[in-house]
Amino acid sequence: MKTELTLSVKDFKSDQEVRWCPGCGDYAILAAVQGFMPELGLAKENIVFVSGIGCSSRFPYYMNTYGMHSIHGRAPAIATGLATSRRDLSVWVVTGDGDALSIGGNHLIHALRRNVNLKILLFNNRIYGLTKGQYSPTSEVGKITKSTPMGSLDAPFNPVSLAIGAEASFVARTIDSDRKHLTEVLRAAAAHPGTALIEIYQNCNIFNDGAFDSLKDPATRDSALLRLEQGRPYRLAPDGEEIVHDAHDPDPTRAFALSRLHHPTPIGVFRDVERPVYDTLMADQLDTAVELHGKGDLAALLAGGDTWTV
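RE: above sequence
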């Protein structure tokens, strides 16, 4: 529900001490989200943050909204139940590359394919930070960590490619330290009906410091980044055909091709298309059932053994 209150960033800061490692990229993301929240025009009690397990999953403690620090990998499942039962809420999921793509991979892809009205912030630092530096599902091949002293053998997931492959209706990528770009992507995701997944490149200065330096260094970032903007032309190869970016194209082929680029690395909105929203479909189905059968009488049902009692 919309509120007549004029809220500010201070209204979304909780009284909890923020406890991440000094210099962690999570601080920048928290500040950007807190600064953006007033734009929603919603009362704080109508906003919910659900997280799983990991450094990023401390997020709900630091937001002065409703929230739940849930269990490993299951945040999308819990958030799905909340979003479908309380359609008046703005439901946000905060997760990491380990939480979302390892134990939580199954829950993530099904939330995306269902197109539940969720906004998923996937912090990707390419490492397990909370458990002290093991390789993650997005760590590069050959990564030396405590759990892979001779180098990782696993080919990493590309979260954006994975989301597009799961037919996600909104997929974007941004960077923790680019406050302006991060806010623009948050704004676009919030306006999107259905599931929106935002991959956020996030620096872990303790266990994987500098993983995204080439994308942040003023000396290299212009050539290292491909900034996706609606209607702006780009090329998939230096001598390739010029293509105009269209995030609203229902065919995911070009969005997927963009997601495979590494040099330069695309950031921005890859895909933003309309699809039926799961919450709405389910509510319509329930309304139809009531129209056809009336409201069930639970006491009569239990006493009579019928499957439905009018």
